[in-house]
Amino acid sequence: MIESLITSKTRIKLLVKFFSNARNRGYLRGLAEEFGESTNSVRIELNRLSNAGLLNWKTEGKTKSYQANENHPLYLDIKNIVRKYLGFDTLIDQVVQGLGSVDKAIISGDYAEGKDTGTIELTIIAEKINEDYLKFLINKTEEKINRKLKVKILETEPEGGLPGLLVYEQSSDDL
């Protein structure tokens, strides 16, 4: 889908890295290594995205560290496109909201770090879940988003919270 709009695979990887989770940061050599790309191709795309104002950078010692510019007028639009590309919208619609009494859903691991590796790790905080129905929803969602789901259920959130990307939180309006 996104590949027909953006022909640079390196640019897609950078958008996924920085716009799937606003806290994600990266620097040239680390990104090149992570993506299995040359530093030159990553540098070109980092410069293009920075010049367009989509990425901010700051110098840390001798290296530049990059991060999504949350103040850019297109930030939310690009974030939503990336989340649709990764299947987060379908994941929330079908699995999380389909289960009913979910308090929170948190993506951890590679996808929280902006790495599209093929397996999404999802932790659901909920008291009573029908596990057979959950398995059905997982299978249905995996087919739709072309990624594997590894789901962990917790009745309560550990003290101090869980690391990762919060993708759903039940509001007091939902109660």
UniProtKB/TrEMBL annotation:
Annotated HTH arsR-type domain residues: 1-88
GO molecular function annotation: DNA-binding transcription factor activity
InterPro entries per the UniProt record, alphabetical: HTH_ArsR_DNA-bd_dom, WH_DNA-bd_sf
SUPFAM superfamilies reported for this sequence: Winged helix' DNA-binding domain
This protein's name: Putative transcriptional regulator, PaaX family
